[in-house]
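Budget justification aside, the reviewers requested a transparent look at the raw inputs and outputs of the sequence design task funded under Objective 1. We therefore reproduce one unedited record. The lines immediately below are the structure tokens for a 167-residue chain.
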């Protein structure tokens, strides 16, 4: 894996400059759910899910949320998503059962770096500071056809417990 220039992590830069440097150093693109991302790995090995769909065995992205962005409620159907904190401020990740319940907050940091969002569960995130850089690994591998944004559903179809400020 390529690594960004060491200046990206310099304490001589403002948080906005660090975010801009990370976006440029990693060639991150805007993600539909919010934030910035770049796919870093897509396994050439294929697996067959229980629904018969063929997918790469695993995919991995870098994902960056700055203080002005959020990862809106979304679900990855047919695959688990593993969130791994890499750098920056703690990240609040909320998960919600597919049919709704009470949203559960998981704070990812260097001391608690990993959480799994099970297939089909709703998830949303926001940084607790200036920025959070995470990796998201999806298995079986991510395809946008398995991705659903909650805001694309009519409000009466939103599951109970979905925090409205994360839509």
């Amino acid at each position: 894996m390529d690594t960004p220039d060491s200046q990206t992590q310099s304490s001589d830069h403002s948080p906005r400059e660090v975010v801009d440097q990370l976006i440029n150093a990693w060639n991150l693109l805007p993600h539909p759910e919010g934030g910035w991302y770049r796919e870093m790995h897509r396994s050439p090995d294929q697996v067959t899910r229980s629904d018969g769909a063929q997918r790469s065995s695993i995919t991995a992205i870098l994902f960056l949320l700055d203080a002005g962005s959020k990862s809106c409620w979304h679900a990855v159907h047919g695959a688990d998503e593993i969130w791994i904190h890499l750098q920056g401020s703690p990240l609040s990740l909320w998960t919600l059962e597919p049919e709704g319940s009470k949203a559960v907050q998981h704070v990812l940091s260097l001391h608690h770096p990993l959480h799994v969002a099970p297939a089909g569960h709703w998830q949303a995130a926001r940084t607790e500071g200036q920025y959070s850089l995470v990796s998201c690994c999806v298995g079986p591998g991510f395809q946008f056809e398995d991705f659903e944004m909650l805001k694309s559903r009519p409000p009466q179809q939103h599951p109970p417990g979905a925090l409205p400020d994360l839509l």
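The mean pLDDT is 94. The first helix runs from residue 15 to 25. Computational costs for records of this kind are itemized in the attached budget.
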